[in-house]
């Protein structure tokens, strides 16, 4: 892929990120979250030809940060605290 | 000797999530762009970490919506609590699955990080992934396929280990 194409795709990603919060009548939070994640992934995929220090830095950050986990208890407890107790 | 390969064939069907479609398009763009195997593996890990975070966030939002629609319409606190507790139990397997995926992702990341450190020290080749890395990616493949199934998108295989001829 040429540098010109990479720049063009990154331009699309930036334009889409700017557009999403301003879409009238399409405030579905799940769709917006999905779009944000998709664009972030696209931007990551478009990175090319990194140096070893850059690669090491990325991997160190990912290794130290760990992966996201779902915590059902927190979500349910938060919901209960907001939706009960008013009786 | 084994090598890491990225599969190009993609069969996306059904409504799916926009993010997965973008990933699939991105993965096809990834092939043949001249980056080293280590660089491609790093990019794949970045993407998978993003996907894991996105999937967790989407599931959290989804659970919130289910709570609102099923339990929020009930009148008493007791009814709401009972309803929410039922959902808490029914979502435990989803939580366990996502968190097992996170553990696999972390193990793969660590294996690639160790490989990168050996490359940096001049003790490994950035285009010849160690078998441990290759096998970690093969395990991660199952996680990605499970996410895609959650969204109604069929991905045959993203990564596989194969014997080098």
Short description:
The complex is a heterodimer of chains A (87) and B (165). Chain A has 87 residues and is mostly helical.
What does this molecule look like?
The complex is a heterodimer of chains A (87) and B (165). Chain A has four helices and no strands. Chain A is an all-alpha fold and 87 residues long. With 165 residues, chain B is mostly helical. In chain B, helix 2 packs antiparallel against helix 3 (77-90), helix 2 (37-71) runs antiparallel to helix 4 (92-120) and helix 4 runs antiparallel to helix 5. The longest helix of chain B has 35 residues, at 37-71. The radius of gyration of chain B is 19 Å and the shape is rod-shaped. Chain B starts with a strand and ends with a strand. The model of chain B is unreliable at 1-19 and 28-32 (pLDDT under 50). At the A-B interface, helix 2, helix 3 and helix 4 of A face helix 1, helix 2, helix 3 and helix 4 of B.
Helical content of chain B stands at 55-70%
Order of helices and strands of chain B: EHHHHHE
Question: Distance N terminus to C terminus of chain A?
Answer: 62 Å
Could you tell me the number of beta strands of chain A?
0
The total of beta strands of chain B comes to 2
User: H/E series of chain A, N to C?
Assistant: HHHH
Task: Write the topology of this structure.
The complex is a heterodimer of chains A (87) and B (165).
Chain A: H1 3-19, H2 29-45, H3 52-65, H4 72-83
Helix pairs in contact in A: 1-2
Chain B: E1 2-6, H1 18-30, H2 37-71, H3 77-90, H4 92-120, H5 131-150, E2 159-163
Antiparallel strand pairs in B: 1-2
Helix pairs in contact in B: 1-2, 2-3, 2-4, 4-5
């Amino acid at each position: 892929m040429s540098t010109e194409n990479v720049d063009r795709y990154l331009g699309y990603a930036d334009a889409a990120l700017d557009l999403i919060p301003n879409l009238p009548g399409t405030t579905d939070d799940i769709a917006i979250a999905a779009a944000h994640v998709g664009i972030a992934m696209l931007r990551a995929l478009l990175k090319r030809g990194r140096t070893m220090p850059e690669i090491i830095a990325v991997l160190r950050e990912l290794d130290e940060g760990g992966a996201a986990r779902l915590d059902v208890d927190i979500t349910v407890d938060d919901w209960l605290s907001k939706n009960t107790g008013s009786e | 000797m084994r090598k890491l390969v990225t599969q190009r064939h993609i069969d996306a069907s059904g409504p799916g999530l926009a993010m997965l479609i973008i990933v699939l398009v991105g993965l096809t763009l990834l092939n043949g762009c001249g980056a080293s195997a280590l660089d491609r593996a790093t990019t794949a890990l970045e993407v998978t970490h993003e996907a894991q975070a996105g999937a967790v966030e989407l599931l959290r939002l989804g659970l919130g919506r289910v709570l609102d629609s099923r339990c929020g319409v009930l009148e008493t606190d007791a009814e709401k609590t009972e309803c929410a507790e039922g959902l808490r139990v029914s979502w435990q397997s989803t939580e366990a699955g996502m968190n097992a995926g996170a553990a696999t992702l972390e193990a793969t990341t660590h294996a690639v990080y160790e490989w990168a450190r050996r490359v940096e020290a001049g003790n490994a080749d950035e285009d010849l992934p160690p078998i441990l890395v290759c096998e970690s990616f093969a395990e991660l493949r199952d996680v990605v396929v499970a996410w895609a199934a959650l969204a109604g998108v069929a991905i045959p295989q993203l990564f596989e280990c194969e014997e080098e001829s």
